[in-house]
UniProtKB/TrEMBL annotation:
Gene Ontology terms: biological process: carbohydrate metabolic process; chondroitin sulfate proteoglycan biosynthetic process
GO CC terms of this entry: Golgi membrane
GO MF annotations in UniProt: galactosylgalactosylxylosylprotein 3-beta-glucuronosyltransferase activity; metal ion binding
Keywords in alphabetical order: Glycoprotein, Golgi apparatus, Manganese, Membrane, Metal-binding, Signal-anchor, Transferase, Transmembrane, Transmembrane helix
Topological type in the membrane: Single-pass type II membrane protein
Pathway: Protein modification; protein glycosylation
Organism of provenance: Bemisia tabaci (Sweetpotato whitefly)
Group of enzyme by EC: transferase
Name recorded for this polypeptide: Galactosylgalactosylxylosylprotein 3-beta-glucuronosyltransferase
Length: 315
């Protein structure tokens, strides 16, 4: 065999080896991609197992939670706390309505990553009803436009003869238990329960007549003469009632502090209210509010035209 022929054989053999190695690499790459896909699927399965909300039961009434929200430093923290609770409730649909011209990335991403059943809406508060800087929170009714937007979506999407459930108006700065969210789903007309840390009291609640099991009076310090001296966090309304009465909505044209009384008066009477939370003997909701953070150092950065501390990171 001459040297030329020998070199050709060596080259051919090396080429075969290279071709074999390339085929092996391609096979390993496909196996790696399959493994990564499997890991991703398993991770999602584990997430679904942890999240009760992913286990949808067509026979179970749905809890529709309408939450107004607006941009502020504590918004993501507030919504994260709510979402972590809602994830533990089966058949819950979160209708979150931003007071904004457009859907924000913060809320969109939070909802997308929450594994919740949700509807994301926007509806801006009319300028004349927006709180001015340093204006007290109680000076103007808040969340009216957003709650009504949630009701409109329900009326356009659900049918009274088909869809079963309850509607709850849950502000984003309160604290809710899984227990009350599960109890309210069986509301026939309108249900009520105590709310902690509201109205200047440790608890504001309906008083129940032990003989009739009905609301007989109210434990309320602020404007106790109201027909329904109750906080927004203290009641829920049957979905069918709201679908069959399209005129029922929140209004700016009510006396300060009467939003709850106004909406409940359109659907029920005090005598018809259904007490929950062990006959209104337990506090399962709290009217909490995050303290405004001290951002003086952040303001100094802005005054010096320096980058903010949260540049490139969502807080």
């Amino acid at each position: 065999m001459d040297k030329c022929t020998e070199s050709s054989l060596i080259f051919f053999t090396d080429f075969e080896k290279f071709d074999g190695m390339q085929a092996t690499l391609d096979r390993l790459r496909l196996e790696l991609e399959d493994s990564q896909s499997l890991v991703k699927q398993l991770s999602q399965v584990q997430l679904d197992k942890r999240s009760t909300c992913a286990q949808w039961d067509p026979a179970l009434p749905v809890v529709y939670v309408i939450t107004p929200t607006f941009a502020r430093p504590v918004q993501k923290a507030e919504l994260t706390r709510l979402s972590q609770t809602f994830m533990l409730v089966q058949n819950l649909h979160w209708i979150i309505v931003e007071d904004s011209k457009q859907k924000t990335a913060l809320v969109s991403n939070l909802l997308k990553n929450s594994n919740l059943n949700y509807t994301h809406l926007i509806n801006m508060t009319p300028p004349q009803w927006k709180l001015k800087q340093k204006e007290q929170r109680w000076r103007k009714p808040r969340g009216v436009t957003q709650r009504n937007a949630g009701l409109t979506w329900l009326r356009e999407s659900k049918k009274p003869a088909v869809d079963r459930g309850v509607v709850y108006f849950a502000d984003d700065d309160n604290t809710y238990t899984v227990q009350i969210l599960n109890e309210m789903r069986y509301t026939r007309k309108a249900s009520v329960w105590p709310v902690g840390l509201v109205g200047g009291l440790m608890v504001e609640k309906p008083n129940i007549d032990p003989d009739t099991g009905r609301v007989s009076s109210w434990n309320s310090a602020w404007r106790p003469e109201r027909k329904f001296p109750i906080d927004m966090a203290g009641f829920a309304i049957n979905l069918r009632i709201l679908l069959e009465k399209p005129s029922v909505k929140f209004s700016y044209q009510v006396e300060r502090g009467y939003l709850e009384t106004d909406i409940l008066s359109q659907v029920t009477t005090p005598e018809e209210l259904e007490p929950l939370a062990d006959n209104c003997t337990k506090v399962l909701v709290w009217h909490t509010r995050s303290q405004n953070p001290n951002l003086e150092a952040e303001n100094r950065l802005a005054r010096k035209s320096l980058p903010p501390s949260n540049a490139g990171i969502e807080v």
